[in-house]
Amino acid sequence: MKLAIVILNYNGKALLERFLPSVIAFSKDASIYIADNGSDDNSAAFIKRKFPQIKILEFSKNYGYAKGYNEAVKKIEADVFCFLNSDVRVTKNWLLPVIQAFERNKNTGIIQPKILDEKNPEKFEYAGAAGGFIDQLGYPYCRGRIFETIEEDKAQYDGTAPIFWASGACFFIRSILFKQLNGFDGNFFAHMEEIDLCWRAKNQKHSILYVGHSTVFHLGGASLKPGPKKTFLNFRNSLLTLTKNSKHPLVLVVLLRLILDGFAAVKFFLDGKFQLVLAIIKAHFSYYKLLPYALSYRKAHKRLKYSGVKSIVFKYYVLKIKTFKKLNTQ
């Protein structure tokens, strides 16, 4: 199985210097590519000098996560792509369990390893943890992380298990499936594009796996710090994902989401985070602008019913269910 590891870089010279050595050391059977999104910190020159064995794809501007990877894979031939964040440290034999899982499960199109926190290695990392799920209102959560509650890794999520979405921090996908799905949705720019892609794969009856015997450590927050831009992307892209892919009655689902988004805006206002309130308002207007596109996609593609948790917000904040295992027992 020919595997290509693709690392998207935008002004991440320091991250590449810190994390790339582990990828090189523990990925002998894979080809490694750096896709540079128009960096101006001499990242490309640094890679050429420090790691001449790495293949570099240079773009003239920052395409973001979604379109950046879409452009990169046009120039790469492989059976499986691994989209790896530049702030991820991989471990010995991290690839073998993933390759074996692909070989054993022919219908599996996407795989995620165990993602632990580089800053707190005993804990799962926020962006993916032990595999993602989504509630019927489009709110994502993970095995090992629900909203701000992050669990310690005590082998409770070891082994292999089906999941709903895989984290973009370390995302394995068969190349034929990626091309069949037309890649990530470039309208997203960044954030939740991997959830949208996974949901589209699910709607075509492909399975997605978590492989806990493969472990990586993610620094997190390196590409886009918490703030108005991240809030904007998360709120808008969540609504786009829901509109494109959900089987449930759209008007009802989106109306409930807009109400909950309103509550979030009120909370930000009361906390004095006025820029985040403005970001939510901008996210909604941007969503309305893209709504004709999302509705057109929804009409043209088959959607399967997803019987997940109705509201993770209710389970977490009202019923005080904080862990995935407790969630499944309620």
- Structural class call reads alpha/beta
CATH class of the largest domain reads Alpha Beta
CATH architecture of the largest domain: Alpha-Beta Complex
Total strands: 13
- As for the CATH topology of the largest domain, it is Spore Coat Polysaccharide Biosynthesis Protein SpsA, Chain A
What's the number of domains? 2
H/E series, N to C? EHEHEHEEHEEEEEEEHHEHHHHH
Low-confidence spans: pLDDT under 50, at least 5 residues?
Answer: none
What name goes with the CATH superfamily of the largest domain?
A: Spore Coat Polysaccharide Biosynthesis Protein SpsA, Chain A
Major sheet: 9 strands, mixed
Whole-angstrom Rg: 19 Å
How much helix, percentage-wise, in residues?
Answer: 40-55%
The end-to-end distance, rounded to whole angstroms, is 41 Å
Q: Given the C-alpha coordinates, what overall shape results? A: globular
- Please tell me the overall pLDDT: 94
Proportion in β-strands: 15-25%
Number of helices: 11
Features:
nine-stranded mixed sheet; 330 residues; Spore Coat Polysaccharide Biosynthesis Protein SpsA, Chain A; alpha/beta
Overview in brief:
Helices cover 41% and strands 21% of the residues.
Summarize the structure in words.
The chain has helices at residues 13-25, 43-50, 64-73, 96-104, 175-180, 193-203, 228-245, 250-270, 274-300, 312-318, 324-327, and strands spanning 3-9, 30-37, 55-59, 80-84, 88-90, 108-117, 132-134, 140-142, 145-146, 149-150, 160-162, 170-174, 207-218. The chain is α/β, with parallel strands linked by helices. Helix 7 (228-245) packs antiparallel against helix 8 and helix 8 packs antiparallel against helix 9 (274-300). The protein is globular.
